[in-house]
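In response to the reviewer comment on reproducibility (Comment 2.3), we provide here a single inverse folding case reported in full, input and output, so that an independent group could reproduce the run without further information from us. The structure tokens appear first.
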């Protein structure tokens, strides 16, 4: 079982091994507080924590019913990274359930979970580069094996990719979350009508880092200039141009990282992988470079308990020792530190 509460989704997922190293999904219960954050234009930590408190027990009930079990063999939980108060709710619940059921407890790294969940759909994972893009994260990772420490190749130096979508949507007067709105509007726009800057794409950026705040500022300046001149803002073209810039940078750097490392598989994860242009461009560039692209179905890309259960299953199979019930949440946990925290 995996319990997830690092951001605005309360998730309880259950998986099991069936024969030849295949993982099977038994339950995927998720409750999201995304609507409660909408009027603030972003996740409000206190609201998220309270929503987790209310949703945890009913979500657990649903997962157990869905799987048709009374208790799992092990309880895994996201210990970090994430919102401090939100993490506390899931971790406290996981410890209580593990103690009450008398089963081992595993404190799991959320980011590694986003990678591991892909094995549920596409089977055993070869050495790969993973690109994680969500409201809170933008990471390029090198994963040799799910039982081994993950190497962080790069991350964002400012805004996360999904966050940039949310901020640009706000500038354009669209709703929250902004990603789906920008994606929808961009279909009606011309991606080359307004060309926005691609941050940190120069040959000297050896680490595979990202920057999206300059792009966001460029969109803001463009909109301001139009308004000052009393001209209408071509919102569809701006959405398309912005989305093109994000998709271009993400896919270019992911493919470059895979080529640098001599790896022939790219895995995508995180809620912003729902973006249609990102998916299409990743597909196109991976095909051109002879790289196999693996993208889990959208429901598994956003935060959920199944990803934590999946990683837990791999770590347990690789011989990981259970964590202490005294393990503390770590809001800033790095992906390269460890996948299971003692
Ligand atoms: P975390 O960062 O901890 O994974 P999160 O709640 O911020 O959690 P997700 O729930 O995985 O992230 O994803 C939500 C983010 O994905 C939001 O920023 C949203 O705007 C973005 N997003 C969703 N759909 C799309 C889309 N079609 N195009 C671009 N961005 C999208
Ligand atoms: Mg979310
Ligand atoms: Fe996440």
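Designed residues, in position order:
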């Amino acid at each position: 079982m995996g319990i997830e509460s690092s951001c605005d989704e309360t998730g309880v997922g259950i998986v099991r091994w069936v024969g030849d190293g295949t993982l099977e999904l038994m339950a995927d219960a998720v409750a999201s507080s995304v609507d409660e954050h909408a009027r603030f234009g972003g996740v409000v930590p206190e609201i998220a924590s309270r929503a987790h408190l209310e949703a945890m027990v009913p979500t657990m009930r649903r997962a157990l019913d869905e799987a048709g079990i009374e208790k799992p063999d092990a309880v895994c939980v996201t210990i970090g990274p994430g919102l401090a108060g939100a993490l506390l709710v899931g971790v406290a619940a996981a410890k209580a359930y593990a103690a009450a059921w008398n089963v081992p407890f595993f404190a799991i790294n959320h980011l590694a979970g986003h990678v591991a969940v892909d094995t549920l759909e596409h089977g055993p994972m070869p050495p790969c580069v993973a690109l994680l893009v969500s409201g809170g994260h933008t990471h390029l990772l090198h994963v040799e094996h799910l039982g081994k420490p993950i190497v962080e190749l790069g991350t964002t130096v400012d805004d996360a990719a999904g966050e940039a979508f949310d901020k640009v949507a706000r500038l354009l007067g669209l709703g929250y979350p902004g990603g789906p709105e920008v994606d929808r509007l961009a279909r009606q726009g011309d991606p080359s009508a307004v060309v926005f800057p691609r941050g940190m794409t120069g040959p000297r950026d050896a680490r595979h880092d990202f920057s999206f705040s300059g792009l966001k500022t460029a969109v803001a300046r463009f909109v301001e200039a139009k308004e000052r001149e009393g001209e209408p803002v071509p919102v569809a073209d701006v959405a398309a141009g912005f989305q093109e810039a994000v998709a271009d940078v993400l896919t270019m750097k992911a493919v470059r990282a895979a080529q640098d490392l001599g790896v022939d598989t790219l895995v995508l994860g995180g809620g912003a992988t729902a973006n249609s242009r990102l998916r299409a461009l990743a597909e196109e560039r991976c095909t051109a470079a002879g790289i196999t692209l693996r993208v889990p179905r959208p429901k598994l890309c956003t935060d959920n308990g199944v990803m934590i259960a999946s990683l837990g299953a791999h770590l347990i199979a690789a011989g990981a020792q259970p964590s202490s019930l005294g393990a503390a949440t770590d809001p800033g946990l790095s992906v390269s530190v460890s996948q299971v925290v003692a």
